[in-house]
Amino acid sequence: MLEDKNQERTSLADLGEFGLINHLTKHFKMYNSTTLKGVGDDAAVISKSEKEILVTTDLLVEGVHFDLSYMPLKHLGYKAVMVNLSDVYAMNGVAEQITVSIAVSNRFPLEALEELYAGIQLACDTYKVDLIGGDTTSSTKGMLISVTALGSAKKEDIVYRNGANATDLIVVSGDLGAAYLGLQVLEREKQVFQVNPENQPDLDSYTYLIERQLKPEARKDVPELLKEMEVKPTSMIDISDGLSSEIMHICTQSKVGCKIYEDKLPLDPQVISTSEEFNMDSTMIALSGGEDYELLFTVPIADFDKIKGNPNFSIIGHITEENEGMNLVTRANQEMELKAQGWNSFKG
Amino acid sequence: MLEDKNQERTSLADLGEFGLINHLTKHFKMYNSTTLKGVGDDAAVISKSEKEILVTTDLLVEGVHFDLSYMPLKHLGYKAVMVNLSDVYAMNGVAEQITVSIAVSNRFPLEALEELYAGIQLACDTYKVDLIGGDTTSSTKGMLISVTALGSAKKEDIVYRNGANATDLIVVSGDLGAAYLGLQVLEREKQVFQVNPENQPDLDSYTYLIERQLKPEARKDVPELLKEMEVKPTSMIDISDGLSSEIMHICTQSKVGCKIYEDKLPLDPQVISTSEEFNMDSTMIALSGGEDYELLFTVPIADFDKIKGNPNFSIIGHITEENEGMNLVTRANQEMELKAQGWNSFKG
Q1: Predicted ipTM?
Q2: Over the stretch B229-251, which tens digit does the pLDDT of each residue have?
Q3: CA-to-CA dists, residue A127 to A98, A117, A157, angstroms
Q4: Which of B23, B45, B92 is nearest to A161 (CA)?
Q5: For residue A224, is it within any domain?
Q6: Is B290:B223 a contact under the CB 8 Å cutoff?
Q7: Is residue A101 domain-shared with residue A201, that is, in the same domain?
Q8: Global pTM?
Q9: What is the pLDDT of residues A151-208, one digit of tens each?
Q10: pLDDT of A51
C-alpha cells in the first residue's frame, strides 16, 4: 500500500485559536515556584522576587532565519527557545519563563505545530523553564516564531556588556564556527538533492557541525560554573552573530580595545577539516560565523589561574586601552583590525 | 515640479540591525524606576519589586490583523502597544515595560519604521510605559509586530478570569461595537477607492467608529477608578474578540452561567445609525464585533450602588449558576443562548 502522506492532517481552522493554544500547551509542566499563573488569562503572573528580572526577546522568520527543507520543526522549536535562554545566561542569570508566539500560514497542519511544540517542550523540560503565555495566529506566508524569555539574577551578580577593563582576559566557552559550517553543509546537500533526489548524502564527517546548527544548546552551565569558581566576569555577551561582532559590542560599550590571538581560537577538528574542504579560512569562520551560542566574557587578569586549566573555557586574548583599537593578532604575529562581519538580515 | 515620492527613502540594509534599533529607539524616555536597563544588552533588567509581575504578548500580522492601505503606520504602532497594555489592565495591574519585535520586508524604507516607532513612542509617553528591548529583522513578505508587555500588581489586587460567582453583576466600560463598524467603513471606502480613485470620501458621520478602529485606547483608567471606588472585581477580561467570546471565557473559567440584557448593551449613536446603514444588527455587532479594548468585569451585587451611576460603566447583566447556561435576554424578553462568534484568524 502506498503511504498516504495526508493521513493525519488536521486543519488549524477547525480548532480555532483558543482550542489550538490549549491543545499545544496542555502537557507543559511548570518548574519554577515564581510562575504563579501561566497560560490562560489576559496575562501571566510571576511572583515578586528577591532578584532582578531579566527580559529578552528574539524573532525567527522562515526564509530568513531558518529553512524548513532541512530544519525539522521539532529542532526549530528547540532552537527558538535556546536563542533566547542564551541571552539570559549572557547576563549571568537563570532563565525561568518563556512566552512563545507563532504565526503560520494555512499550509501548516496541526501536526506540524505539534512537532514544533514538542521541541519547545523538550527545551522547557531540559532547561527547567516554564511556558507562561503566547499568541497563535495565521500568517499570509510562512512561519514566524517570537519568543520572549524571562529570568532572574541577584543585582550584584548581573553582568552587562559595559564593564570590561584594560588588561582583562577575554574568554570564550566551547568552540567556534561549527554552527555556520553546519549550515554550509546543509545548504550544499539541499542543492545536491534538488539536482538529484536519489542521492543519499553521507554526512558522517559533519555530524558535530550539523548538530551545532540544528540543535544548539544554550550555556546554562556557564553561569553555574563561574559561580562555583568564584569568578564574576566584568562583561559578558552570547555569540549569536559571530565573535568579531560580539567582542566589538563589548569594546564599544566598555570604551576599551582588544587583542584577539588567532592561534588561541578554539576550533573543533571538523571545523578545520570542513573549512579546508569548502576552501574557507577557519579563522574567518570562527570570527564571523555566528549561531554558536557560546558565551564570550572578560575577567580580571587576577582570575587567570581559575580559568586557564578549565576545559570549558579558552582564553583568546585580552582587553586593551580604547585607543589601541580592536585587533586580531595573526599566527604570523601581524595585527589586523577586527571587522564586524556579523549577519545583517536586511542584506539580500 | 512633480513630487518625488522617493525623495526620503533610506534602505534598511544600509543601517544594519544594530544601527536600526539604535536609530529607532534612541529618543524613547524611561518612565518607571523598575526599569534598570532597557535596550542595548543581551537582556533588559527590571528591578525586584514588592509586587507580582504580569506578562502578556500579542502578535499583529499584515494582511491578517491590519491593512496598511488604510491603517497609517503611526496608528499601527500605537495600536500594537494598546492591545498589550489592555491585557495588563485586565489583570487590574499597572503596565510598566514593553518589548517590540518587528519583521519587515525590503519594501519598507527606514522612514516607514520611523512612523511605526513614532506611534509606539506616543503610546509609551501617553501610558508611561518603557520600551526595554526587542528584535528587528527582515521578513520575506509584509510586516509583523510582536509586542510583550510587563506590568505589576499587588498579589491581593490581581483579578483573574475565574472568580465570578452567581448573582455577581456583569459590568462593561465604555461602549461596544464601534471598532468593528469602523473597520467595515474603512473596508467599504477601500473598495470605492479601488473602483474610483478620484472619489473623495465623506467620513464625517463615522469619525468615532474610525477612531475606535485606528486609534483604540487601553483602559488604564479603569483599574485606577476601581481602586478609588474601593471595588475589586471578582473577574475581569479585556474585550478583544467580542463581548460574547469574552463573557464565555469568564463563565467557563469561573464555572458559572450568565444573563446579558440586550437593552443594557452600551452603544454609541454612530454604532446604531451605521448598523442600520449596513443592514446589520447592532446587538450582534456589540456581542461579536471585537477590538473594542474595553474591560468586562464582574462585581459582587453589594457593589451595585458604587457602580450604577458611574458614566464609565454599564451594568449589562448578572452571573448565574452554571447549569442555567450563558444567555442573552432580548428586548422582547426572550432568552437566547450566547454563541462565541469571536474572530478566528485561521478561517479564511
Answers
A1: 0.91
A2: 999 999 999 999 999 999 999 99
A3: 11, 15, 20
A4: B45
A5: yes
A6: no
A7: no
A8: 0.92
A9: 999 999 999 999 999 999 999 999 999 999 999 999 999 998 888 888 877 888 999 9
A10: 92
The Cα of B348 is separated from the nearest Cα of chain A by a number of Å equal to 8
Q: For an interface test with B, which of A20, A22, A55 has the most B Cβ atoms less than 10 Å from its Cβ?
A: A55
Query: Can you give the CATH number for the domain in which B238 is found?
Result: 3.90.650.10
What does the mean pLDDT of chain A come to? 92
Q: Give A150's contacts (C-beta < 8 A, 6+ positions apart).
A: A46, A53, A54, A55, A88, A95, A96, A97, A98, A132, B53, B55
Residues of A whose CB is below 8 A from B50: 48
CB B257 within 8 A of CB B327: yes
Cα separation, B246 vs A153, in Å, equals 37
Q: Are residues B131 and B257 in the same domain?
A: no
Domain coverage including residue B60? 14-157
Determine the Cα–Cα distance for residues B314 and B342; give it in Å rounded to an integer.
21
> B43–A61: do the CB atoms touch at under 8 Å?
no
Record: contact B48-A49, CB cut-off 8 A: yes
CB B173 within 8 A of CB B219: yes
Identify whether A275 is part of a domain. Answer: yes
Which residues of chain A are within 8 Å of residue B55 when distances are taken between CB atoms? Answer: 43-46, 97, 99, 132-133, 148, 150
Sheet holding A52-61, edge to edge: A130-138, A94-104, A143-153, A52-61, B44-46, B35-37
pLDDT at A68: 94
Over residues A115-138, mean pLDDT: 95
> Which among A61, A146, A238, A241 is the top mutation candidate for probing chain B, defined by the most B β-carbons within 10 Å of its own β-carbon?
A146
Q: Would you state the cell numbers that stand for residue A269, as one nine-digit string?
A: 577538528
pLDDT exceeds 70 at position B175: yes
The span from the CA of A339 to the CA of B4, in Å, is 37
